[in-house]
Design goal:
The protein is an alpha+beta fold. It is 37% helix and 27% strand.
């Protein structure tokens, strides 16, 4: 599948939500049903962060050859570093290198803006999460070694998302070549 990556805009939020909603169905197939209403504080906060990411140049959109958005990466500053808030690809476009390309684009952005680490939170027990990030050089970090903003994200996710005990923080050292 051919695709390209471009900076995201606040006008892309409808597509961002559509992409994430579709990608979330993969979790349901694995028994993790995430069904928070649009008015739930976690959902409202998440979408607000994505919009802020777009407005501050911290959102990338992957488009297929027809120009249809099929993936996105939203990131933001956290604890003096960058935090990958969300990486989602529609299920029909998965396994084509889109997620990897988006992640690498965020890594490049983090390095080029002088950050030493890229952080994220994810599920540790799903075959497509932790192992994917580990192949890209991220390592699991004990919560005690996380900054306050990363701990806040983990606490929120554990409070509102299913299987809270499987939520972990990971980071990539950007100082290494």
């Amino acid at each position: 599948m051919q695709f390209s990556i471009r900076p995201g805009l606040a006008a892309d939020m409808t597509d961002v939500v559509r992409i994430d909603d579709d990608a979330t169905l993969l979790y349901a197939e694995a028994g993790i049903v995430i069904s928070l209403p649009l008015t739930h504080p976690f959902t409202v906060d998440e979408r607000s962060r994505w919009t802020h990411s777009a407005e501050s140049g911290q959102l990338f959109i992957a488009e297929d050859a027809r120009g249809v958005p099929v993936g996105f990466a939203a990131f933001e500053p956290a604890d003096g570093q960058l935090y990958l808030d969300q990486l989602s690809v529609v299920r029909a476009a998965m396994k084509n290198g889109i997620g990897r390309a988006l992640l690498r684009r965020v890594v490049h952005e983090a390095r080029s803006t002088g950050h030493d680490f890229l952080w994220l939170t994810t599920y540790s027990h799903l075959a497509w999460n932790r192992p994917f990030y580990e192949r890209e050089g991220l390592v699991v970090v004990p919560e005690s070694e996380c900054g306050s903003r990363i701990r806040h994200h983990i606490e929120d996710q554990r409070r509102f998302l299913p299987v809270p005990e499987e939520r972990i923080a990971m980071k990539k050292d950007l100082r290494a070549p």
